[in-house]
Amino acid sequence: MIFTSPGTDTNHFIDLIGAAVLLLGWRLTTAPGRVRLAAGLPVVLAGLTAATWIPGMISVKTVIEKGGKPERRKVAAIVARLGPSGHDLLSENPILPVLAGERPRVLDPFNLRLLALERPDVAAEFRRRMSDGSFGAVVLVDWTGSDPAHVSAALRTCTGSEGDRCYGEVVFPPGFLQALERNYVLSFVEHPFVVYQPRFRSRQLGVAPGAAGVPSAP
User: Fold this and answer.
1) How many distinct structural domains can be found in the chain?
2) Same-domain pairing of 44 and 61
3) Which of 75, 84, 161, 172 has a CB 3.0–4.6 Å from the CB of 176, allowing a cystine?
4) Would residue 168 count as lying in a domain?
5) 18-28 pLDDT tens trace
6) Rounded CA gap, 161 and 184, in Å?
7) pLDDT tens digit string along 194-205?
């Protein structure tokens, strides 16, 4: 996963697109009578790129400004707040376990859903770990800016570009949110990250299930 813009963050064909651009450029420069077209192509692309900076035009810049992007300082703050209790993170964005010095359990939750559909053993092991609460924390991403009281509802109603539910139908295996809400409790929100910790740990700390702002275990 490339931790930059939404274009490279969610487009699973970015490598194929890059290769296609190189192939197209090579064909235009080698095909007879198309050298002039090849020379004009960069000018056209430059013009289109400049047009994306016009107010109101859709571009990577406007998408980032509207939806936001993870900031390294926020990631570091989450890792520090979780402390040792946040070992073995299950994170929608693998940058969190990487900065925590761990090996990410999931690099791409979209592909995890597909793998779980094809491999019953993978699906069963994932369900077991969710039921056991054995992940030190589960960190999801919410771009709506919802406050802690409404962020769980925002995650449940999140939909993809084709209307599918984000969690269980686009990313992560089916039933993911239900297992999360049964076995984990909302701990805190550091936009755009939403942090859940195992429910049994919250009971040990004497915190009511479902309460936001659960402190980290000592």
Assistant:
1) 2
2) yes
3) 172
4) yes
5) 777 777 777 76
6) 28
7) 999 998 764 444
Residue 167 · residue 158 · CB < 8 Å = yes
Q: Are residues 92 and 188 in the same domain?
A: yes
The residue type found at 25 is G
Say yes or no: 97 and 148 in one domain.
yes
Give yes or no: residues 175 and 78 share one domain.
yes
Looking at the fold, whether 89 and 62 belong to one and the same domain comes out as no
| pLDDT tens-digit series, residues 19-60 | 777 777 777 677 666 666 666 767 777 787 777 777 766 666
Domain that holds residue 173: 70-204
Return the closest-CA partner of residue 25 out of 16, 35, 33, 15: 35
Residue 216 lies in a domain: no
Provide the token pair at 62: 């406007």
4 pLDDT tier (thresholds 50, 70, 90): very low
0.70 exceeded by the pTM? no
